[in-house]
Write a structure and sequence with these properties.
The protein is mainly alpha-helical. Helices cover about 70% and strands about 0% of the residues. The structure holds tryptophan (TRP). Tryptophan (TRP) binds next to helix 1, helix 2, helix 9 and helix 13.
């Protein structure tokens, strides 16, 4: 058939279970363990939970239905799906999100590299005393029998090992992605159940420690005063988008490998609840350890998981190495099933647009990706005299994360709601999804997509930007010695880099012409009632 939308290069999931494992594996990752804990702590535990739950129902689930729906309706990756709805301008947004996914992948994998290093460290000297810091002004050696994960970590990142680890993580990603859905499915069938088991083991250990349950109370006792602060809402919205893998086209790419009759309401609910359930467990495990050992979690995003929790683990009465290893192994496998989805979104978009093979698409991503990830792990090695105490890579990562985490996902979320809501028509998507859904989506869905989600996202974005620019540029106050210019340049590189990439891919080439009436989503339009 001339207008057949399935091309030989595209994949297809073997089973619904495979898809659910892959999508929930994408959702569950560093966001659920590392970022969630640090956000929940930073925003005051109980104060974070109300905006967080609100975000799940008001934004997370509707936008996931939208992204899944787009995928099965068009059977195409995100930029092309948007192109079919709203032409070139919409496609541009799709490519912009793909570029953002690229930037995020680079530092996501750098963090995974460090986690892999810590995992091996757990079997080595991480839990032994006497660690020394490589930079005297930063940290003094610990006492001979006092293990310090922080000292260990800063020691580690000044060696070549994190670079080796980053290469290993990239290689694993490519191995898992090489045959597309086939190899992804094989990997998630092992890793996703395994990470649930490990998380349950950790949580049982955390809760059975004396004082552990206080942490749970801190996390879940609602704090109604804290929620008047808009930054808590912004934090909760960004966290929800990141955690559910929304706003970068990932879920559309994964859903495009499903048969047309997939039940996307059911899938969205399953994936969202599994993700937030896991996040809930991770929060309980981490906060119970924090309180059991009265640890001080102050510091950057990474400090809670990378220094503080290991410090708690080191005080375990038994099984210190085992639990330390398990904890970082958990982070690595949870992160791996997410990073493959961060790469698959761009890969499927390139395959669809350029008609190239998967191998070629992966190579196009691999080269800049590896270079980018290595940059975060490299600079502290080449310039040990930095007055930033060798933490240049960490500081850069923090600045990059600030811009990408807070702005790209929510901006794309806003624009995709507007495009589906007003250009395609929320009702068209709703009816198409309802055709195959057991749970009937009422007209409230249209209201969510057309009004509520855009207002919430737009409101939070405008507020953030105003707050952002009424202060010195983020990161410009950290002292990086002769590298002080870097944090100032990052937002511009990110902003103009992503725009240039998006413009190049959008306008450089046209999708092969399709007879629009043959598109699956057009079929849904004439239907009068669901
Ligand atoms: N959700 C993942 C996590 O929690 C990260 C991730 C994977 C992601 N794919 C994404 C985030 C797409 C945003 C968009 O770690």
């Amino acid at each position: 058939m001339a207008n057949d939308l399935s091309s030989p290069n595209r994949g297809v999931w073997n089973s619904k279970l495979g898809f659910i494992l892959a999508a929930s594996g994408s959702a569950i990752g560093l966001g659920n363990i590392v970022f969630f804990a640090s956000n929940a702590y930073q925003f005051g535990g109980g104060a974070f939970y109300l905006p967080y739950f609100f975000a799940l129902f008001a934004l997370g689930i509707p936008v996931m239905i939208l992204e899944f729906g787009l995928g099965t309706m068009t059977r195409r990756s995100f930029p092309e799906a948007l192109y079919r709805i709203g032409g070139r301008k919409a496609e541009f947004v799709g490519w912009w999100s793909i570029a953002a996914a690229g930037f995020i992948t680079m530092y996501y994998i750098a963090i995974l590299g460090w986690a892999l290093g810590m995992m091996f460290g757990a079997l080595g000297t991480l839990f032994e005393g006497g660690a020394t810091a490589p930079f005297t002004p930063f940290l003094t050696p610990t006492a001979p029998d006092d293990p310090s994960a922080m000292v260990y970590f800063f020691n580690l990142i000044t060696t070549w090992w994190p670079m080796v680890c980053v290469l290993v993580i990239w290689a694993l990603n490519i191995l898992i992605l090489i045959k597309g859905t086939k190899t992804i499915e094989a990997a998630v069938r092992i890793f996703v159940p395994l990470m649930w088991v490990f998380m349950i083991v950790l949580i049982i250990r955390g809760l059975t420690l004396p004082g552990g349950t206080d942490g749970v109370l801190y996390l879940f006792t609602p704090d109604f005063e804290g929620i008047s602060d808009p930054s808590v809402w912004k934090g909760a919205f960004s966290q929800m988008f990141f955690s559910l893998s929304l706003g970068l086209g990932t879920m559309t790419a994964y859903a495009s490998y499903l048969p047309k009759d997939a039940d996307q309401v059911n899938n969205s609910l399953l994936v969202s609840f599994m993700n937030c359930g896991f996040e809930f467990l991770a929060g309980v495990a981490i906060f119970s350890l924090l309180f059991a050992f009265s640890l001080n979690p102050a510091g950057t995003t990474l400090s809670l998981s990378f220094f503080v929790i290991p410090e708690g683990l080191a005080e375990f009465p038994w099984g210190v190495r085992l639990f330390g290893f398990l904890f970082f192994f958990l982070i690595v496998i949870a992160g791996l099933t997410s990073s493959i989805s961060l790469i698959e979104g761009p890969a499927s978009a390139l395959i669809d647009k350029l008609g190239i093979t998967r191998g070629k698409a992966l190579t196009f991503i691999l080269i800049p990706g590896v270079v980018g990830s290595l940059c975060y792990t490299l600079p502290m090695i080449i310039d040990p005299d930095l007055s930033g105490n060798g933490t240049l890579g960490l500081s850069l990562l923090d600045v990059m994360d600030h811009w990408a985490f807070n702005y790209s996902l929510l901006t794309v979320g806003l624009l995709e709601c507007l495009m589906v809501g007003w250009v395609l028509g929320a009702d068209t998507l709703r009816r198409a999804v309802n055709q195959h859904s057991k749970f009937y989506l009422g007209r409230w869905f249209n209201v969510m997509i057309k009004f509520i989600a855009p207002l919430l996202l737009g409101g939070v974005l405008v507020w953030s930007l105003v707050a952002e620019f009424s202060q010195p540029l983020y990161g410009s106050l950290v002292d990086l010695g002769s590298f002080n210019w870097i944090p100032n340049v990052i937002p511009f590189v990110w902003f103009f880099g992503t725009i240039a990439f998006a413009a190049y891919l959008t306008f450089g080439r046209t999708y092969p012409p399709y007879d629009l009436d043959s598109l699956p989503f057009r079929e849904a339009t004439p239907e009068t009632s669901a």
